[in-house]
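**User:** Once you have settled down, spend some time on the protein underneath, comparing sequence with structure tokens, and judge whether sequence predicts the tokens.
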Amino acid sequence: MKIIKCRRISSGRAEGLSLYSPAPISFFGTIDPETSVVVERGHPLYGQQIAGKILIYPTGRGSTVGSYILYGLSRRGLAPKAIIMKEAEPIVAVGAIISDIPLVDKPQSYDFTSGMKMVVDADKGEIILL
């Protein structure tokens, strides 16, 4: 078990498997709001579903509509369990807060891959690798 300190943006705790992208994500244009599948051609996660995963990516990009797309995914049960970012920005922060999705950023270590079993405890400011 390894504990990585981070900064809480949106409170909560979630456990699950990671889905890692080295590329930024825009919830408007990258993610299909009806299925949570990455639909942006050429994106490293193209064709993969973000629902139920701990989504890890460096930064957001794009429109303020992204907050509402994240909220809509949450209402349909298709949102990620938690989000880890190198640097959170307001669009994703608002979306995570209104959707009750734990969101952390600025992890002390950023050596992630897909398929890692982990706990995101935003309230404690910790990512626990299991």
Observations:
- Residues 65-75 form the longest helix (11 residues).
- Strands lie at 2-5, 7-10, 13-20, 54-57, 82-85, 103-105, 117-121, 126-129.
